[in-house]
Predict the structure.
Amino acid sequence: MASNRPKVEDLHLVNLTKTFGDFKAVDNLTLTIPAGSFFALLGPSGCGKTTTLRMVAGLEEPTSGQIKLGQEDVTNLPPYKRWVNTVFQSYALFPHLTIYENVAFGLRRQKAKDIDNQVKAMLELVELTTQAQKKPQQLSGGQQQRVAVARALINEPDVLLLDEPLGALDLKLRRQMQLELKRIQTEVGITFVHVTHDQEEAMTMADTIAVMNEGKIEQMGSPIQIYEHPKTAFVANFLGQTNLFEGTVAGIEGDELAVKVKDVVFHVPLTSTEIRSGRIVFGVRPEKVKIVDQGKTGLPKNQINGSIKLTAFVGVSTQYEVITNWGQEISAFEQNIDPSDLGRPGQAVTLAWEPRHTFVLDPDQDLTAGLDTSWDE
Amino acid sequence: MSIAQESIIAKPVKRRFKRTPYLLILPGIGWLFLFFVFPLSTLLATSLQKPAGISPDDGYLPAFKVSNYSSALAEYYPQFFRAFLYAGIATVICLLLAYPIAYYMAFRARKYRNLMLVLIVAPFFASFLLRTNAWKTILSGDGLVVSVLNSINLLPQDRILNTSLAVVAGLTYNFLPFMILPLYTSLEKIDPRLIEAAGDLYSPPSQRFWKVVWPLSLPGVISGTLLTFIPASGDYINAELLGSIKDKMIGNVIQSQFIDLRDYPTASSLSFTFMAIILVMIYLYIRKAGTDDLV
Amino acid sequence: MKIVKLIREKTLQVFSVLIIAYLMLPLVVIILLSFNKPKGRQNTSWNEFSLDAWTNICRDQTICSSFATSIKIGLLVTIISTIVGTMISFALVRHRYRGRGATSLLIFLPLATPEVILGASLLALFLNIFIPLGFWTILLAQITFTISFVVVVVNARLAGMDPRLEQAAMDLYATPLQTFRYVTFPIALPGIMAAALLSFSLSFDDFIVTTFNSGRVVTFPIYIWGAAQRGIPPQVNVIASLMFLGSLLLVLVASVISKRRKALYT
């Protein structure tokens, strides 16, 4: 069946827009998802990622724009005519059918040959052979999730869409399934488009991440790219945590820009920005910030003094909130090598980080974008 | 033929017009228009007809005799009043009887609730007429009930049958399940943890009921009272089988006007008046209580 | 404090049992009197035990023929209104279309209309267009009010069904027709069956609407009504008892089956 079809193609979304009444859920989205990649659409709830997914699946009609699989324009095709399958957030397993029949469903509708062998092979792949005759209600959440994946995958679609499939699982199981899905994708070579609000999940699994906010894509790239070099405050704040500083350019020193924040001077690589004067906003991630002994030599160039406000021992690391003399809070994460060395609240410390770990953001934007989304769902 | 070139003009997507829902509702809605809406308009026309001759056998002629309404109402307003009174009393009693059992089934009787549901619905599997008639046996003069009540002098007329008490009792019996089921459905949906939370916040049992359970059960109370009151007020079987001539309700009048007296204009005008009153009642009731879904 | 709670609980329990007994009381009387040999024509008080009514159910031919008529009408009404009502229910729950609110209203109105008026208006219609009253007018009348009941029951079942199941089916290459056949219909089936059963009971037991539109045709309830004044023969009690016990059995069997199914899952 799939062997008769041409090679898997790139997925193109062209000027895709979806409005519900006055509300623009997806705003003029243009995106190319390379064939065979594991692609994540990451964003907070309400950003339009699920709507985009549903439009690709054919379950939602775009208001305008196009969806193309390779050269084929599928925009107007109903879902049962597209070589695209979905793993639903709530799994949507057919309660009146056995696991076997659930998995076989797509093949039966296509009147495929040799269904039995294919179903058996797929059940083995997801390790559910013994559950074949049970009904979905009899299975655990993790098992149901695997059935949902099996049911979609068995049809060898060009694109597999996953709508936050791991949301209902507990932490350990979720971690397990993340690796499982990644393994399956690498083996099978199908394009996976994974929608999630969990940035850790996206970074673990995806080759490419597109960060979405309010119907638009803020930034797209590999996990390392967008994490280390966020282009907007939203991306900086939504992925992991960030310390942001507002300052003015003081001058150029060699291959670095000197920036004055209150009465402290920081350095930022010239290559990270085009700004040469005036206002500038830069950031550094907490894990790059260390607590240092002020006297020592060879310390990182960017330094700031403050006192510890909060200490949180998380296990793998200790998270510090340090407050500067002008009242700004800076986060620093120290890897847990010697827990007996913990700083205490009230303690005066010096924080330091390398200039090359800094990234620069456009000063004319909402610097709080992307915060407070960790509370949702 | 690059993607970029095509993407300059964003194409609006063809909207697929769905014929399906209209095809689906066509037979049913068509039927209802033909056999419900249209007949009601015929009824309206009939209510305005005038007699062609002296006797009903002479038939009726199309006319615009609005006075049919006023004369019918003037003559039969006691039966209207009685119908609403009896139905109202029966509804209130039903509510008082139904609420505890619905509450019990919803919150306490885990194991037995399905059995109880079956038993409550079971009477519907036996003929409505026979059930009502059976009360004749139970409430008969030489039966146990009457004898006991008489011995403690509770009965003003020394009997129950052929009194308004019997009619109301009959109405209550027949429509009790209509009150229990919606109440149960509504109560069953209430998360018991809400009641627990109220208790955790220092609410005594009576308050927990009135402030938490009762308001949340209101949709059920509303459907239950409507489902009881409306058919009860139009009923004539209970009055016919269990009551005396003095207990005739508006349903009896309409029935006899149509079937026995063949005074179609009077019967029709009474029907429409009745229907109008019911609809106004429903509207006001629902407005006051506030529900959005009709079905 | 605990004792107060206990008393309250016990009272609730006893009260509920009493209500059930109250609801069952006339049924017990009906069944008991089927075994009665009445003194005169009136079968209202106990005389002596006899199986006569059970062994000679159709001695009075009218009883059995009216029963047969009611069954015939019941089956036809059930088939038609279940199909028509289910279709409307699907349109209401699964589709968004202009006129959805109006459809809902039109379905609701017959439920809010007292039976006297339903019966009377149809009578007026049939009289004015000179359709002879009889089997077919009864059929037409009963279908008219059962449709709304079917819609309500099937709605309840459909509304509780996850619409994403149908989306999943389409995602898995099922055309809309196939989706209906393999997913929607099987899952909705219990609701449709319940609606059909309800339709049948409403039709079989209907008196008021039927009596307005029956002409000379005698259905089972019409027979009972006619006999009520003279005296209802115990054979009627026999039939009623059989129908009652039969339906009860059906419901109990159905619930045992579904309990067995559930037990397989846990």
About this structure: The beta strands of chain B are 50-51, 60-61. Chain B has one domain: 73-289.
